[in-house]
Amino acid sequence: MEKKYRVIFHIDLNAFFASCEMAEDPTLRDKAIGIGGSSNRGVLTTANYVARKYGVSSAMSVMEAKRLCPELIILPVNFDLYHTYSEKFFSVLSEYSDTIEKGSIDEGYLDMTALSETMHPLDIANEIQQRLLKEHNLPVSIGIAPNMFLAKMASDMKKPLGITILRKRDVSEKMWPLPIEKMFGIGKKTYPNLKLLGIRTIGDLAQYDDAYKLGLVLGNRVDEFQQKAFGHDDRTIEPDRYVDMKSIGNSQTYAQDLYEYQDIIGKLTDLTRKVVQRLQADESVAKTITIQVRYNDFTQINRSLTREHHTDSFYEILAIVERLYDENQSDKPIRLLGVSVSNLIDSEHFFRQLNIFQMTDITKKDEAVIRVLDDINEAYGQKIIKKGAKK
């Protein structure tokens, strides 16, 4: 018999880098700690909660952090240490579920539906939290919900050492009052534009009834975001979500860290163009687009999106690359960027069913035009010309 509900945990390590340092040296536990920044001009990767009480935060300059907290202890990034503790973290989680999806080095989603049939989810969460604290000195916050989106939102509601249950029936009370920028998936580029529409909270987004205006900001994801604002998310946990099989990709490590948004988008555009050229030369089309971002503290994220249809269009793939980056921006300086495409098939086997009501679908003639535009733009090294809209 099919289960009528799921129990999903999102478990997030609190101030992970600082927690690792305190786990190694307990004498640091009651002291203000900042990680990163080798000089006063350096930038902090993170800070522990003692330092945060003084207003110290990630992406803050060391000079400003020391002004706020003169006793701040600055420690260098030690990625080998963080990797070791990350393995300990996921090793404990694997004792409770076979279905785990790593969000990053310090967070993961677990499907706890099976175990919850014999043990209350709150008891499981308490046990995991206490074990990580006692065995490895790692504090975590845990969100418990019927889907991945709500579990992620719940884990952010109480830090450090929080456990939050977020049911669909609690969404209007617990989630709707939150500022729109607190909604997972709404990037730093997006929420200012939503505020221009008068959308200041998650509840405002859920109840906003002008789909046209929302579409100007959210594109074709209006329904997805409004569904999530109501607490709906049909995704399932996929342990191999970010494992590519056959793929085409390019990445670049930069001698100087990248800070500025436009510079980062420019680099992603260059990488996307190279990937699309290789894709077209391979006479293939792709359905899944992935970006890789490695920060100057050597932490890394991989984010993917699978389209409904395959494509080898530069502009279609670039739009997804930009969207993936916008939704996962961090204040940390970037050392490496990568773009790849996967889920490939031969171009000759690709047929798209045209819908007479979707007048913007790209026909073979349109694709030929786009390829010419790509060639022109490549020759000039920038997007100086684009396809216009039909009147």
List the helices and strands and how they pair.
Elements: E1 8-13, H1 16-24, E2 33-35, E3 46-47, H2 49-52, H3 62-68, E4 73-75, H4 79-93, E5 100-104, E6 107-111, H5 121-136, E7 140-145, H6 148-155, E8 163-165, H7 171-175, H8 191-196, H9 202-207, H10 211-218, H11 222-229, E9 247-258, H12 261-281, E10 284-295, E11 300-311, H13 314-327, E12 334-342, E13 345-346, H14 364-380
Helix pairs in contact: 4-5, 12-13
Can you walk me through this structure?
- It contains 14 helices and 13 strands.
- It is an alpha+beta fold and 391 residues long.
- Among the domains are: 16-79, MutS, DNA mismatch repair protein, domain I (3-Layer(aba) Sandwich); 171-229, DNA polymerase, domain 1; 247-380, Dna Ligase, domain 1, CATH 3.30.1490.100.
- The protein is globular.
CATH superfamily heading of the domain at 247-380: DNA polymerase, Y-family, little finger domain
Order of helices and strands: EHEEHHEHEEHEHEHHHHHEHEEHEEH
Uncertain residue ranges: 351-365
The CATH architecture classification of the domain at 247-380 is 2-Layer Sandwich
The CA-CA distance between the termini, in Å, is 54 Å
Put simply, the count of helices is 14
Quaternary: single chain
Q: Briefly note the CATH topology name of the domain at 247-380.
A: Dna Ligase, domain 1
Strand content: 15-25%
Mean pLDDT: 87
Strand order of the largest sheet: 5-6-1-7-8
Question: What is the β-strand count?
Answer: 13
Described by strand count, sense and barrel closure, the largest sheet is: 5 strands, mixed
Structural class category: alpha+beta
**Main CATH class of the domain at 247-380:** Alpha Beta
The percent of residues in helical segments reads 25-40%
> What is the 3D form?
globular
Radius of gyration: 23 Å
GO cellular component, one term: cytosol
Subunit structure: Monomer.
GO molecular function, one term: DNA-directed DNA polymerase activity
Catalytic activity: DNA(n) + a 2'-deoxyribonucleoside 5'-triphosphate = DNA(n+1) + diphosphate
